[in-house]
Specification:
This protein has 285 residues and is mainly alpha-helical. It is 74% helix and 0% strand. The protein contains 13 helices and no strands. The radius of gyration is 25 Å and the shape is flat.
Amino acid sequence: MPGILSSLLAAVHRFGPYVLAVNMILYFIELQYTQTRSSLDAGAWAGFIWIERVIAGFFTLEYVLRIKLAPHKGKYLRSGLGLIDLVSILPFWIGFYPGLTQEQLGLVRGARTLRLLKMFRFSPKLAEFARSMYTNRVRVIPIFLITIMYLMISSTVIYEVERRAQPEVFNVYGDSIWWAVVTSTTVGYGDKYPVTPLGQGATVLMMMVGIGIVGMIFGFFADSFHDSRQPLEPTLMEEYCRGVHEEGPQGRTVLALRQTHRSNPQFLIFADTVDRYIDSAEGAN
């Protein structure tokens, strides 16, 4: 029985990217076709609903099979890919809740695009990039804190300076937060801007700091992408496989290699792939 389920999961995984592509193409066609109406309204083509049900059933089957075949079910459910598998089908099943308003139902249906996150499962290169960002996650904390401090300082300054000069524009503190976010990204919608000399001077400083923060964020992604492209030494792969073969996945050599190369995303992806292969083989037996 496990062998049959494994073969079924392999087939589902093989066709998954094509099903996902068809799903997204049809969804965007549905949005263009229905325009201001909902595909749930009377007179709308029912095919959109039934196609979504079939595709959601396809990915639900995949999720159930992965839970069934996972040697460590709790580990799979808490993993990044496990959460992505759940998020990809959750909006569909939430849509059956009878208490949803039309606006809430529209939000739930729009959340179907979260299914695109499954590309991290289907694309090895995206998986490498995600792993690289995860290993560099310690750099996210200072960037996040700096961003929060910048937004709090800039929004407070502009609110205190401009709210008396133009109370209709900066009516509440939330208006200044919106302005700070737009200004920091140099988008500049033009819906809110300072008119006082002090506010304009402060804005110049905030824009320069904001550009620097945006550069830090993009630098983090660039470094993660660069790390994911670094080649993995064959001797390291051979040493890890030998350690797994001789001592097992929790052997001293294996754990030491994981600890030593914990900042190498390529090695971690390779090691996780080997471990998943072993778990799958044990589950099939």
